[in-house]
Amino acid sequence: MGNEKLIGIVDGSGVLYDPEGLDLDVLRKCAEQRVMVVNYGGKLSKNGYFINVNDRNFKLPNGEIIQNGEQYRNSFILRDDVECDIFVPCGGRPETINPYNYEKLFKKDGTPRFKYIVEGANLFISESVRPRLQDKGIILFKDASTNKGGVTSSSMEVLAALALDDEDHKNNLRVQNDGSVPEF
């Protein structure tokens, strides 16, 4: 929407990263098609890469060998070479950032690798760690404020599942076998 540069996306399929910036038009098409970044298909700079969770012994552009794609995905945000202005976790396990690893969000000189963290995922950061991050200069936007849409949507899904009988749920809330989406 502006002059932003999106440098990385981590999802169930792996890690898509390019410090020069990812192609926003290609990403928009992926979002519209609701596909994971394994389907990106856009150009990457010489320093860009995609690591699939199933990859083994993957060589990064800098020569580093990644033994296990899944482990890499799970720890990507804790790497020393990953930094940006705004980090938006929109999934992950509760307490992904916790008392045992939060210090990895800072460079060796103590400056934050992320200026802002906007939690689009519930409980991504341990409550005990929040004041530590803020005291060290990271501005946090808490999940309770930033993820209202996700919470509301999931609540409506649960309510619909409880309120409708099986046939109405199947006909109104599921994509049909032919791929059509019910109007409801």
Listing every helix as H and every strand as E from the N terminus to the C terminus, the arrangement reads: EEHEEEHEEHEHHH
From the alpha carbons, calculate the radius of gyration and give it in angstroms: 19 Å
Structural class: alpha/beta
- Report the portion of residues in β strands: 15-25%
Considering DSSP H and I runs of 4 or more, what fraction of the residues is helical? 25-40%
Number of strands: 8
Please provide a written account of the structure.
This protein is of the alpha/beta class and 184 residues long. The chain folds into three domains: 1-80, no CATH class; 83-146, no CATH class; 149-184, no CATH class. 28% of the residues lie in helices and 17% in strands. It contains six helices and eight strands, in the order E-E-H-E-E-E-H-E-E-H-E-H-H-H. It has helices at residues 24-33, 69-75, 130-135, 143-146, 148-163, 166-173, and strands at 8-11, 14-17, 49-52, 56-59, 65-68, 84-87, 114-118, 139-141. A three-stranded antiparallel β-sheet has the order 1-2-3, covered by helices on one side. A hairpin with a 2-residue loop joins strand 1 and strand 2. The chain is globular. The model has no long low-confidence stretch (mean pLDDT 88).
